[in-house]
Amino acid sequence: MKVLPGRSYPLGATWDGRGTTFALYSEAATKVELCLFDSPDASHESGRIVLPETTDLVWHAYLPDILPGQVYGYRVHGPYEPKQGHRFTPNKISLDPYAKAVVRETKWADEMFAYRVGDPEGDLSFDDRDNAHLAPLAAVIDDAFTWGSDRWPRTEWSKTVIYELHVRGFSILNPEVPERLRGTYAGLGSEASIDYLRSLGVTAVELLPIHELVHDRHIVERGLKNYWGYNSLSFFAPEHQYASAASPPDVVREFKTMVRNLHAAGIEVILDVVYNHTAEGNQLGPSLSFRGIDNAAYYRLVAEDPRYYMDFTGCGNGLNMVNFRVLQLIMDSLRYWVTSMHVDGFRFDLASTLARELHDVNQLGVFFDVIHQDPVISQAKLIAEPWDVGEGGYRVGNFPLLWSEWNGKYRDAMRRFWKGDEGMVPEFATRFCGSSDLYEWSNRRPHASINFITAHDGFTLNDLVSYNEKHNEANGEGGRDGESNNLSWNCGVEGPTDDPGIQALRAKKQRSMLLTLWLSQGVPMLRAGDEIGHSQRGNNNAYCQDNEISWLNWTLGPAQASLLEFARRVALIFRQEPVFHRRRFFHGKSLRSADTPEITWLAPVGGEMSDDMWNDPKLRCLGIRLYGKRIDIDEHGEEIDGDTMLLLFNADHAVPVAFKLPPADEGQKWELLADSARSEQGPAQHVERLFELAPCSVAVFRSRSIELETDGIET
Predict the structure, then answer these.
(1) Residue 115, SS3?
(2) Which of 618, 575, 668 is nearest to 161 (CA)?
C-alpha cells in the first residue's frame, strides 16, 4: 500500500475525496502503527502501517487507497513506566481520540487492561496479551451531507424553554413513533416526537451525553448499563447504539437528519458534554485510547507521584487542560459538533473541572479565554454545571460572560418553598426574579440562570412529592449511591397509593412546581417526563437503568393526561405573554416611565408587602404583579408591551387564603388563566376582589379589557 507523508493537521482520519490523512498526537511515543481491519468483527488487523512522519509531536501519514468505511486503530510504542506516568501498550489497540465513528462496542475481558488483573503488583505489572479482538475500533467517514436550507434557530435566551431528555428513553416506548425508530436519533427527529415537543412550547432539547461511551465492566457484570452516558470514550463520534442505522456513515447521517428535522420545527439541539474525564478511569482502569497513546500528556497526574491521577470528578481521572494539544482536542470537538453536525449549544458536565489550571478553579482560565475568542463556539449556547467534587468547586454565580449556569440555588429554594419550610419567601422571590444576587454583579442577564427543580440526576417531579427516601436497590449498590437529601415531600405516604386525597395533593404539588418553573425569570429547564408524571419508583440515581425505570411510559392514565394538559396550558401562557420574556433584571420602575413600576410584591391582606411580612418566618403566601407596559426595547428600538400579569403563591400545606387582589389596569378585570389547585381548568373567568387560594397552589391572572370576549386559551 502506498504511504505518503501527509500533513499533521487536521488530526484524526480525514478523507479528502481521494485518500485519507491519519494524524495522531503523542509526545513521548517512539513509534506509531496504524492498524487496518477488514471489518468491525475482525479478530485481528489485516495490515499495519508505521506512520512515517512526526511534526510538532503529531505522527501522520497520507494513504491514497483508504476510503470511507475503513476500520482502524493504533498501536503506540513507548515506555511502560507507571511510576513515571508512562503506560504505553503496543500490544493493545488504542482508539483514535478524533474518531468520528466507533464501530465496535468495548468488550470486557482482562486483556483490556494494561496490567495483569489480580496481580499483587496491580497496575505496576504488565499484561502482554493482545486485545485486537475486543478493543473499540474507529472508521473513516465521508462527512458530506445535504443540509439543504437548514439554519440554526438561534432562539433568544429570554424565549428559550429547555427540555432535558435521553435519546433512547424518550421515544423507546412511544407507540406514535415507528417501531424501528423508537429509542433512536431518528425517533427523536420523527414527526410524532417533534409535534409533542412543539405542543409543550419546547425551543431546545438538551440531550444527555451522546458521545460514544463505555459501559463500565463492574456495571455490565451486574447486568446493567451506563444508561446516562457520562463515561465518554470519543468526543467526536455519536453513540452508535442510539441509531437505527447500522453502518458508521449512516449513524452520523442519522444524527444530522435528526438535527435538521428539529431545526425545521424551530427546536435547537444542546449536547450535554463530558470533557472533564474519560472512560479509562484511574490507574486500575482499562487501556482503551488516551492512556496507551500518551498517558502523561492527556491526563492530569499527581506531580509528586505520577502513577496516580488528579481527580476532581469522582470518576478516576481528569484531562490535562494545561496541555495545549488537549485543549485543542476539546475545541476541535466543540467546533466539529457546531460546524459539521449543526448543534446549537453545549451543557458542560462538572464545568468547574475544566477551569482548574493547577488546583484552584480559575474563573478566567485558559479554557474560558479560548472559548470566548473562538468565532464559532462563542456564538453557541454555553451552559455550565457550575460545580465539581474538588475543593472550591461549587461556583454557582461565578462563571464569566457568555455563560449560563444550572442554578442549583434555584432548585433548592423552590423545593424548600413548596415543601413548606419556614422563612423561604425572601429567597423564593429572589430566585423567581432571576437570581440577580448571583448574576447581576458581573453584568450578566437573567438568562444566566438555567432554572430547574428536577434533572436527570435525582428524583423525578412525581417522585419528589411521593418519596422521602431514595429507593435505589435496583442499582445493586446496597442503597449507598445517590443523594440522601433531595428536599422531597411525600404528602404523608411513601410511594404509590390508592388514597384519592393523597393522589390529588401530589398532583397539585406537581402542577404548582411546573407553573413556578415555567414562569420564573431566567430559562426554564424541564426534565423529560415530569409533565406526564413519570416515576422511577423512588430511584434518584437511575444512571444504570436502561429499562422501564428510566424509559418514559406514553400510556397515560387520566391523572397523567390531565397533568400534560396543564403543562401545555402553562407553556402557552409563557409563549403568549412578553412579560415572561424579560431580558433585564427588575429594578422597580419601568424602562421608559419613572411612574410605572415593573413589579410589586403583594400581601394576601391587600397592598404591598411590608418589611415585617418579608421577615416573618411563618409567611408562606405572597403575590407578584408584573406590569405589562414598556416591558423592554427590541433590537430595532421599539417598545415591547404586553399584558399585566398577577401570580399568587400559597405554599402552606393546610390553610387556604382569601387573597385580596389589587385593582386591575384601568378599564380591565383580572382573568384567571391557570390555577394549580384545579385538575381541570375549564373556561377562563373574571375575578373581582377576593380569590380563594388553595393550599399548595399557584394562580395566574391576566389583566384584560372587560369588553373582550374570552373563551379561555387553547391548549
Answers:
(1) coil
(2) 575
Eight-state DSSP code of residue 163: E
Pairing of strands 449-451, 403-406: parallel
CATH of domain 585-705: 2.60.40.1180
Q: Is the peptide bond before 10 cis (omega within 30 degrees of 0)?
A: yes
Q: Which residue in this structure is represented by grid cell 422501564?
A: 548
Q: What gap in Å lies between CA 642 and CA 630, rounded to an integer?
A: 8
The answer to whether residues 338 and 377 touch, using CB atoms and an 8 Å cutoff, is yes
Q: Which pLDDT tens digit goes with each residue over 475-496?
A: 998 888 877 666 677 777 888 9
- Strand 449-451 and strand 523-527: pairing? parallel
Q: Beta strands of 264-343 (E only): which ranges?
A: 268-273
- Are 341 and 237 contacting, i.e. CB atoms less than 8 angstroms apart? no
Q: How many CB atoms lie within 10 A of CB 137?
A: 24
Q: For the segment 197-252, what is each residue's pLDDT rounded down to a tens digit?
A: 999 999 999 999 999 999 999 999 999 999 999 999 999 999 999 999 989 889 99
- Which CATH architecture group holds 12-139? Sandwich (2.60)
Distance of CA 459 to the CA centre of its chain: 16
Half-sphere exposure of 332 (CA within 13 A, CB side): 18
**Residues labelled catalytic:** 349, 385
Q: What is the DSSP string of 627-639?
A: --TT-EE-TTS-E
pTM score > 0.85 for this model? yes
Cell 423507546, residue located: 172
Q: How many residues can be counted in the chain?
A: 715
How far apart CA 424 and CA 438 sit, in angstroms, is 17
H helices present in 164-283, as ranges:
167-171, 185-188, 191-199, 217-220, 248-264
Per the rule left: phi > 0, alpha: psi between -120 and 50, beta: everything else, 408 is alpha
Kindly report the number of other CB atoms within 10 A of residue 110's CB atom: 14
Q: ∠315-316-317 over CA atoms, to 5°?
A: 105
Q: Where are the domain boundaries for CATH 2.60.40.1180 in the chain?
A: 585-705
User: pLDDT per residue over 248-278, tens digit each?
Assistant: 889 999 999 999 999 999 999 999 999 999 9
Where in the chain are all domains bearing CATH 2.60.40.10? 12-139
Distance from C-alpha of 430 to C-alpha of 425, rounded to nearest angstrom: 9
